[in-house]
Amino acid sequence: METQTPEFKELLLRQLPDKVNANMFRTKRKVQAEHSELTEANNWHLVKGGLNSSKSESVNPPSAALAILFNPVTLEWIKALPPNVPLQKDQDKRIKNEVMIIRASLEISGLSKLQNHVKELENLFLDGHPVFGFLTPHFGPSLDALLYQVDNGSYNVTEKQLTAEISGYIYNQAFEHACQLCLKYGFWVQDPNPGNVIISYENGMFNDALLIDFASGRQIAPTFVGQKYQEPEARKARFVRLFKEELCPLFNREATKHSIPLIDSSNQTLCNYVEKFLPIN
Ligand SMILES: Nc1ncnc2c1ncn2[C@@H]1O[C@H](COP(=O)(O)OP(=O)(O)O)[C@@H](O)[C@H]1O
Ligand SMILES: [Mg+2]
Q1: Going by CA atoms, what residue is nearest to atom 16 of ligand 1?
Q2: CA distances from 231 to 16, 247, 271 (A)
Q3: Which of the ligands is closest to the CA of residue 68?
Q4: What's the burial of 84, exposed, middle or buried (CB within 10 Å: 0-12/13-18/19+)?
Q5: CA of 204 to the centre of ligand 1 (A)
Q6: How many whole angstroms separate alpha carbon 134 and alpha carbon 118?
Q7: Distance between the two ends of the chain, CA-based, in angstroms?
Q8: CA of 252 relative to ligand 2 center, distance in Å
Q9: 264-277 exposure pattern, b = at least 16 Cβ within 10 A, e = fewer
Q10: Long-range contact list for 3-6, CB < 8 A, 24+ apart?
């Protein structure tokens, strides 16, 4: 698919953030964010999650929702654990793992040069509360933001068709990247909802799909841990099962839910991905 046609660009350009509206999120409230890596403490908007974690979240930290902040001036995002989630229960690993997997994801999407812009923020202060989080630059519009306009009724017939084409193309690419993350790095994509698929944007060009959001339970354990997966044959057998029983159903469930064309789950594709992405020791 030709991704740089004027119509394609025009549609996607509409998804770029204006003031405090990025990827369809709106400000819940403004927050002061202090850390030596941040250029300024102001202009941070809490757009998702909260900073006042409830008692139940403290008791069950693996499911504690992370706070999402966006800065429309610097075009950066912060994702952080709420203040009273106890870090001693390996919670900081959620952040550390997410940073590690996002860097791998950037490499897969041909955006390695952005890896150093993804930064762990230890001793970050949000409204004076010490938290642990990480910083990312704005990578581009999410597939969710693109699809939202369809539900919203703001596209005409041609734009709807174009959106279906773009979403099928991008989602299939995201699926290929999830297979690559699994085969090459042993990382697992637990939640391929369209909010976690970004259409990366750089210097006036829309590029590859980019997978984000790796803070949920399953990603923490790499898929191929353990001696028995050292051999390529064992990795291959495990991947074949994961592809058929988990990854394809996971992606196609989301595709169906959001009226995105289904991903290519043929045996031929499976063979191609294994051949292309399984590292030969
Ligand atoms: N670096 C980024 N570039 C573009 N959008 C982002 C970025 N980081 C977060 N977002 C937006 O914020 C949303 C929430 O972030 P995400 O990491 O998916 O957290 P959650 O666990 O709350 O889903 C994403 O769906 C995406 O729209
Ligand atoms: Mg998400």
Answers
A1: 213
A2: 44, 22, 17
A3: 1
A4: middle
A5: 21
A6: 7
A7: 34
A8: 17
A9: ebeeebbeebbeeb
A10: 3/166, 3/169, 3/206, 4/205, 4/206
Residue from 79, 101, 220 whose mutation best tests the ligand 1 pocket (most atoms within 8 A of CB): 79
Instruction: Please identify which residue in the block is written with the tokens 């354990």.
Output: 221
Residue list, ligand 1 pocket, CB within 6 Å: 23, 48-49, 66, 68, 77, 79, 136, 138-139, 142, 195-196, 198, 212-213, 215
Furthest C-alpha separation in the chain: 54
Residue 201 pLDDT > 90, yes or no?
A: no
Instruction: Tell me how far the alpha carbon of residue 231 lies from the centroid of ligand 2, in angstroms.
Output: 33
Enumerate residues 6+ apart whose C-beta is below 8 A from 148.
24
Q: Which residues pair with 134 in a beta bridge?
A: 79, 120
How far is residue 80's CA from residue 67's CA, in Å, rounded to a whole number?
Answer: 5
CA–CA separation, 4 and 41 (whole Å): 37
Residue 73 to residues 27, 39, 79, 138, Cα–Cα distance (Å): 14, 10, 17, 11
Look up the pTM and report it: 0.90
Residue 59 — very low, low, confident or very high, per pLDDT cuts 50/70/90? very low
Nearest CA to ligand 1 atom 24: 195
- Write out pLDDT tens, residues 123-176: 999 999 999 999 999 999 999 998 987 777 778 889 889 999 999 999 999 999
Which bin fits 104, alpha (ψ -120 to 50), beta or left (φ > 0)?
alpha
Dihedral (CA of 257, 260, 261, 266) sign: negative
